[in-house]
Amino acid sequence: MRVSPRTIVQKSFALVIGTLLALVTLELALRCGQFAYLSVQEHHNRARLKRKDGIAYRILCLGESTTMLGGNDSYPSQLEKILNGQNAGIRFSVFNKGAAGTKTGIIVGKLEANLDKYDPDMVIVMMGINDRWWVQPHAPSSWIPEDLRVYKLFRYLWENLAKSDDTENGGAAYDEPRLMKLLKLDPADSASYLTLGTFYQSRGRLKEAEEAFQRAPRRWGYNKLGVLYRNEGRTKEATEMCEKAVEIDPNDADNYLELGRCYHFFNSMYKKAMKIYEKGLELDPKESLFYYHIGQCYYRTGEFGKGEVMIKKALELDPSNDMYYIYLWDMYAEKGRWADIEVLLLKAVKKNPEDELLFGRLATYYRRKGRYREADEYSAKASRLRSDRTDPVTKENYRRLKETVMRRGKSLICVQYPMRRVRDLKAYFDSTAGVVFVDNEGVFRRELEVSRFQEIFDDAFAGDFGHCTKKGNRILAENVARAIMKEVFSRELRLDLLQRFPRAGAGDGHP
Questions:
Q1: Prediction pTM value
Q2: Structure confidence at residue 478 (pLDDT)
């Protein structure tokens, strides 16, 4: 069946979606150690499942790296110890199913399987922060910098597909029935397979995404499979796919970008990664990401000066990309160049007055320096910007999460991130009935009045907060435990639980 040139052009733009998914580099560094963390984490989870007494109240914790990281010091691990120290007469087992670098669509996509596997009485979720760096199957959100070349292509794709003749789904380019209809009309439609694979990937349906990408032309399919495998932590397969993509199409700069990332982030082969990035740069000398990643590699190999030069070059090409400012922040902080950080961030917010992440970073800087008035001023600006931008994709995934958990008869606790307003979390729900919310704004702000930022957070990846230290996770776990005991374990419910779960004593920590 012949396809019109217009249709081919429209669908070909779907190829850019895969490159957008690869923009999340902040979490990629954490993924280098993800297998080690997951191995220990799964060992603890399996040990809990093997218990034969059947008297534990099971809690399943879902989220990304802020849930996963820390081992025995993670907030789920500390939560279990705290709950079992309450002398409530009930034994608690807490399962940590956090996954670094993941997003809400994948968390919800795996929800049914996790509920089947762990059969929890309660689900605790803290998610959404990574959605900011991932593009999902909806029209571009207002926070995406419009100067980004890849944003313009995505917007053009969205607008063109929305204008297509088939509008029965309101122009929803990523509506699954619509894509299946296109493939039924034209089974050889490679662009639709790529788009369908991207849709499945964003929904956590990874096996179906893999099958769709495998049916796409090798020229593009290998690249998308490489990204898919990399995001799943399948490092060897990811590298093989990206190497094949370069072999088949050595003139596509994106293929070098993805292959370089495999060597860079998963294998720590910085010199080899730089050579790959440099080849891509020859093909696309205006792509700022190549300069950014080369700068990272220089920094990792101890060449600070060269790294700084390259990342500044990336900023010249794309001053709207907050990742570049954030990486320079981290470089300067390691060298104690605090004055340079202030200059950098003031310049950043001037160029990007709608970027809540940068305002949050500036607030964090001033808080670290003890300049609390300025910290509160910029923190308030960041909060206002976040409140104005409730991501429709995150909202939809919270709706799906609530519907599934409630249908399965489980208790649901939704935890807001440290320093963030709980009302922003509640805005994701049309109805908050049946959901317990944990507010972590006040408790962390009060702690930071008496503790240094670095005592509570290992970094500031989210602007106003970061991955918690042992102490930070303890504060988080204690606050969640208070909500569980106060909001969930009412007098009547507690009596019912004591009948279901015979007294087993406290102190049931990690095996």
A1: 0.65
A2: 96
Q: How far apart are CA 424 and CA 398, in angstroms?
A: 13
Query: Has residue 363 got a pLDDT over 80?
Result: yes
Phi, psi of 34 (to 5 degrees): -65, -40
Do residues 329 and 312 lie in contact, with contact meaning Cβ atoms separated by under 8 Å?
no
Sign of the CA dihedral with 445 first, then 447, 448, and 453 last: negative
Question: Count of CB atoms within 10 A of residue 316's CB?
Answer: 11
Domain membership of residue 90 (yes or no) is yes
Take residue 187 and report the two structure tokens written for it: 């089974």
- Bigger pLDDT: 259 vs 194: 259
Q: Which residues contact 428 (CB under 8 A, 6 or more apart)?
A: 128, 390, 394, 395, 398, 399
Q: Give me the amino acid identity at 433.
A: A
In this predicted structure, the answer to whether residue 145 has a pLDDT above a threshold of 80 is: no
Domain span including residue 447: 52-133+390-500
Cα–Cα distances in Å, from 180 out to 160, 177, 191?
19, 5, 12
Is the pLDDT at 8 greater than 80? The verdict is: no
Task: Give the residue from 237, 195, 240 showing the smallest Cα distance to 216.
Answer: 195
* CB 260 within 8 Å of CB 289: no
Who contacts 341 (Cβ-Cβ below 8 Å, separation ≥6)?
329, 332, 333, 365
Give the ranges where 203-234 is alpha helix by DSSP (H): 206-214, 218-232
Q: How many domains would you assign to the chain?
A: 1
| Per-residue pLDDT at 308 exceeds 60 | yes
Give 439-483 pLDDT, tens digit per residue: 999 999 899 888 888 899 988 888 888 899 999 999 999 999 999
- Predicted confidence at residue 152, as pLDDT, reads 32
Record the tokens describing residue 346, joined without a space: 């003031």
Nearest to 265 by CA among 459, 495, 35, 72: 35
CATH number of 78's domain: 3.40.50.1110
**Residue 27 falls inside a structural domain:** no
Q: How confident is the model at residue 172 (pLDDT cuts 50, 70, 90)?
A: very low
For residue 498, what pLDDT band results from cuts at 50, 70 and 90? low
Per DSSP, helices labelled H in 304-426 are 304-317, 322-335, 338-351, 356-368, 372-387, 392-407, 422-426
Question: Would you say residue 292 has pLDDT above 90?
Answer: yes
- Give domain status of residue 66, yes or no: yes
At 123 the three-state DSSP class reads: strand
Euclidean distance between CA atoms 264 and 252, whole angstroms? 19
CB 399 within 8 Å of CB 430: yes
What is d(CA 42, CA 340) in angstroms, rounded to the nearest whole number?
42
- Using CA atoms, how far residue 126 sits from 117, 303, 461, in Å, is 20, 37, 16
pLDDT score at 149:
34
In a domain, 383, yes or no: no
